[in-house]
Specification:
The protein has helices at 17-28, 40-50, 64-70, 97-117, 142-161, 185-198, 207-218; strands at residues 8-12, 32-37, 55-58, 77-82, 120-129, 166-172, 227-230. By secondary structure, it is of the alpha/beta class. It has a single domain (8-179, 208-227), classed as 3-Layer(aba) Sandwich (Rossmann fold). It has a seven-stranded parallel beta sheet with strand order 3-2-1-4-5-6-7, with helices on both faces. It is globular and about 45 Å long. The structure holds NADP nicotinamide-adenine-dinucleotide phosphate. The site of NADP nicotinamide-adenine-dinucleotide phosphate has 29 residues, from helix 1 and helix 4. NADP nicotinamide-adenine-dinucleotide phosphate (NAP) binds at residues 13, 15-19, 37-39, 42, 59-62, 83-86, 106-107, 110, 129, 131, 172, 174-175, 177-179.
Length: 237
């Protein structure tokens, strides 16, 4: 994979899970990495895990003002990755409307705000992290599928609007991350075991599997407008 020495990479949502693995992979390729998220504690731990040359900056992507202030110094990035999201998922008729709107605000509008404000150098890239529910709906998760599908359409439009900046999407299936820390440990383990037993890939996705694909898109100058599915085959079964 290409060298990222001298490149500046911002990972929004880089303090945990897929974002953290992406930040670590970019740093290994020589990039100067900035990770952004809401929690200073998580950022401190992430910077320690990523290593020297990395920086953590507090940002809540649900705030218009915070996103604008974050980029106010005008410093440009070569690559921006957005994996930040906090969504509540339940059946449409069960999920309170305010929770559905907050989910959309976090994942869709959060990414939109960053896409609108982030200075990205020509030839650089913007990458969204969506999710396989956009193409493989599941009962009780229609809102998440709609958010992901909206982001994928946005990314393809942005590939035209932001060129020569390249805009791509990576769509994961189930990935073992702190996203599931809120579940009871036994239920979480059962979910992972069920997935490993039924997925064609025969295993549960790890953050590094998704990070590898994000890095592949970042470093491929011909990749733009792409939606790449990394779901262990879950859209097929
Ligand atoms: N894990 C899966 O199975 C899976 C499957 C398909 C798609 N995805 C998608 O992949 C992306 C990353 O998920 P993950 O599993 O890596 O989750 P995660 O481990 O919970 O990480 C989410 C990251 O986003 C940050 N974040 C949340 N809300 C934010 C906000 N408003 N502003 C700024 N940062 C915010 C969190 O840090 P703070 O708490 O410090 O803000 C954290 O760094 C999400 O878009 C998720 O929907 C995940």
């Amino acid at each position: 994979m290409s060298d990222l020495t001298g490149k500046r990479v911002l990972v929004v949502g880089g303090s945990s899970g897929i974002g953290l693995a992406t930040a670590q992979a970019a740093a290994k390729l020589g990039a100067g990495v900035v990770v952004a998220s809401r929690s200073q504690d998580k950022l401190d731990a992430a910077v320690a895990a990523i290593g020297p040359g990395s920086q953590g900056r507090v940002l809540d992507t649900t705030s218009d003002a915070a996103v604008e202030a974050f980029f106010a110094d005008g410093a440009a990035y070569d690559h921006v990755v957005i994996s930040a999201a906090q969504t509540k998922v339940a059946a449409v008729r069960e999920l309170p409307l305010a929770d559905a709107q907050a989910s959309m605000d976090s994942k869709f509008w959060g990414a939109y705000r960053i896409a609108r404000a982030a200075p990205i150098r020509d030839g650089g890239s913007l990458t969204f992290v969506t999710g396989v529910l956009a193409i493989r709906p599941r009962k009780g998760a229609a809102i998440q599928g709609a958010i992901n599908a909206g982001l994928e359409a946005l990314a393809q439009g942005l590939a035209l609007e932001l060129a020569p900046v390249r805009v791509n999407t990576v769509s994961p299936g189930l990935v073992e991350t702190p996203l599931y820390d809120r579940m009871a440990a036994e239920a979480r383990q059962a979910m992972y075991e069920r997935a490993a037993a039924t997925l064609p890939a025969g295993l549960v996705g790890q953050p590094e599997h998704i990070a590898a694909q994000i890095l592949a898109l970042i470093t491929n100058p011909y990749a733009t407008g792409s939606i790449v599915y990394i779901h262990g085959g879950s859209a097929l079964v």
